Amino acid sequence: MPFWSKGNSARRFRLFFATDVHGSEPTFRKFVNAGKFYNVDVLILGGDITGKMMVPIIALGNHSYRATLQSRLYNLKEEDLPEFMNRLSKLGFYSSEMSEQEYAKLAEDPERVNRLYLEKANERLIAWINWADEKLAGSNLKCFVTGGNDDAREVVDTLNRVAGERVIACEEKLVSVSNEGHSMVSLGYSNPTPWKTPREVDEADLASHITEAFKGVESCEKLIFNMHVPPVNSTLDTCPQLDTSTDPPTVITSGGEPVLFGAGSQAVREAIEHYQPLLSLHGHIHESRNVTKIGRTTAVNPGSEYGEGVLRGIIVSINGNKVESTQMTSG
After folding, report:
1. Does the N-terminal or the C-terminal CB of the chain have fewer CB atoms within 10 Å?
2. Whether residue 258 has a cis bond before it, omega within 30° of 0
3. Does residue 210 lie in a domain region?
4. Is 292 contained in some domain?
């Protein structure tokens, strides 16, 4: 070997991170295909993988149906269903066909509605995992997936149970993500929001979850912190402030403009400042797409536009214990 060569030089490691796909079929498929398209080593999908609602499709007889989507009533024929279902899957919504009588019974039983929603959410998640495992078979790509505050515990349990050879569940785990010694800890909880989502906790509880997650970490030099909620007042958490006294909450304005504030977590910010991981991956606030530095830590939020079937993501290039570059993507 020539004397000027560095035999122990680190190999560059590239990851692609996206988050908040919220059940959108085309957005998830684009995410899995992004590995080959962007020529990265690892795919990481942040939290909020499940959709926000289920749409009943009511069978009226004579091959006719009725459904309400985004406050608009649709009268459908059987031949209209495939296009309507594709629209629902693009938006990330689930659907269930039922009779008028079944719908009436369901409307009187919120617990049964929730069970049906979870059934549909788990069905889509399992189908996604199976499809991704097949798509990534024969490659060196691995896809790490965690939950978010919108993802019920039952969904995270399904992810942990069904995750395959290429799709790896990483919620509340310390996992290796490269051959160069990079590891990652992931958490899907958030501080309280106006929407009362399934996995919100107060700041003290969130701090406890973070402390527990870092217990197995020996060094943060090459550590990636995959935390769904961003740090407070970081430019990764800027969004309109909401008046929670109305139902649904409404945007607070001043001089005709929305009042913006940092909706992120103080506990997350303190953890980043204390542990100083190499890289910190966040989502949750869809409109706050940015890259920032907190001490030595590069912190990112690629944003989300899942409802349009658009995949927003970020490519991060790492060399040893340094983040060399970041590149936002959209498509």
Report:
1. N
2. no
3. yes
4. yes
For 135-160, write each residue's pLDDT tens digit. 999 999 999 999 999 999 999 999 99
Span 103-131, mean pLDDT?
Answer: 97
Q: Judge whether 2 lies within some domain.
A: no
Helix 25-37 and helix 81-91, axial crossing angle in degrees, nearest 10? 60
CATH number at residue 138: 3.60.21.10
Higher confidence at residue 187 or residue 10? 187
Burial class of 162 by CB neighbour count within 10 A (0 to 12, 13 to 18, 19+): middle
Domain that holds residue 288: 12-52+118-330
The size of the chain, in residues, is: 331
DSSP percent split of the chain into helix, strand, coil, nearest 5:
30, 35, 35
Q: How far apart are CA 124 and CA 50, in angstroms?
A: 9
If one counts the domains in the chain, the total is 1
Q: Which amino acid is at 308?
A: E
Question: How far out from the chain centre does Cα 147 lie?
Answer: 7
Within a domain: 76: no
- Give the range among 6-15, 94-103, 296-305, 315-324 with minimum mean pLDDT: 6-15
